[in-house]
Amino acid sequence: MENQEKITMLITEDHTLVREAWCRMFNDSPHFEVLAGCASGEEAIELSKALRPQLVMMDINLPGINGIEATREILKLLPGVKVLGVSLHAQPAYAFKMMKAGASGYITKNSPMDEMILAITDIFNEKKYICKEVKEMLSENMISGDDEAAVLNTLSKKEIKIISYIQKGYSSREIASALAIAVKTVERHRYNIFKKLKIRNVASLVNLINKYQHLYQFTVKA
């Protein structure tokens, strides 16, 4: 790396062994200084405020506030911080959601050390970085024609909220009441959802959402 000054880092990872290994690995490099390691999104937010690292390595699956929400909160407080998302998941939907939250890069835990360094170098050169494993899976999905997950990424927050109520068995009138909007507005959203997803009935919608439940939060809070 060309920059002679050390890049200060906060490493967020809930598996102690992995977190300690990363901290040791980066501290052994002349290019990095790990200011702290933590195991939750809440800790990451508080430590980012206190320590102001230049880079936050952010695991997505965390107890409490997940890595995506923590990334949003950190970037609201410190817009200049670079966030590198890290996850076990190579599905492109995870990378898209993390980047949409404001992360500058995304790698999986299968990525070699060289690629991790490349990702950090690129994001500090104001580039975006998606690891090779995710790109390969995206290519495979495109070749196989399995574009359902990509289509789900086009849904708006309002459409996702309405889907969550449909999944619970709510009628259009009940959804309208719950969201304080007109029944006609709900029906318009339903039409757009069905058109985007190329489905014709609620049963097909529920089957599709159940298939990708692990990627999306189609849930209604009580």
What would you say this structure looks like, in words?
- The chain has 2 domains: 136 residues, Rossmann fold, CATH 3.40.50; 64 residues, Arc Repressor Mutant, subunit A, CATH 1.10.10.
- It is built from 11 helices and 6 strands.
- The chain is α/β, with parallel strands linked by helices and 222 residues long.
What brief labels describe this structure?
222 residues, alpha/beta, Rossmann fold, Arc Repressor Mutant, subunit A, six-stranded parallel sheet, 11 helices, 6 strands, elongated
Provide the low-confidence segments as ranges.
218-222
Classification by helices and strands: alpha/beta
Described by strand count, sense and barrel closure, the largest sheet is: 6 strands, parallel
The domain count comes to 2
CATH class of the largest domain: Alpha Beta
Mean pLDDT: 86
The percent range for strand residues is: 5-15%
Radius of gyration: 20 Å
Element order: H for helix, E for strand: EHEHEHEHEHEHHHHHH
In angstroms, what separates the terminal alpha carbons?
Answer: 50 Å
Shape: elongated
CATH superfamily of the largest domain: Response regulator
Tell me the strand order in the biggest sheet: 2-1-3-4-5-6
Count the strands? 6
CATH architecture descriptor of the largest domain: 3-Layer(aba) Sandwich
How many H/I helical runs?
A: 11
CATH fold annotation of the largest domain: Rossmann fold
Helix proportion: 40-55%
